[in-house]
Amino acid sequence: MIIEKLIQDKKLLEKQLFWIEISYNECYKIGIKDEYLIDEFGKFEILCSRYSRGVDFLIRKIFRTIDEYEFENQGTLIDVVNNAHKRGLFENIEELRVMKDIRNTIVHEYIEDDLVEIFDEVLFFSKKLIEIINNTLRYIEIRYHL
Length: 146
What we know:
This protein is mainly α.
């Protein structure tokens, strides 16, 4: 049943948020540099990975589950994002597209030096991702009393 799926997805989203916040806070303390120590680079690499999974999970899983629960037409990814925007889960559609583009860059980036170039964007948009996840969790709690 869809309510059980929504409950399970909410728990998984809370877990995603927990790990993204840990990585974000560690990397925020490190800050943006021209060069990173090995352990610092590792922490940023973990943040990139958690950021990518978080963006995917939020858009492809959570937003779709909410659409399904609210009997929205299961359309394209653009439809899903537009529906989430109409619900007030985030303010700026273009910003979410940039977040997804950064995710794509991370996933397709195989050279470490090129990954370093996006650490500042990942750090900035991780904070935005945390805000959107919190908004989404509040929406689910208030709308569905879960």
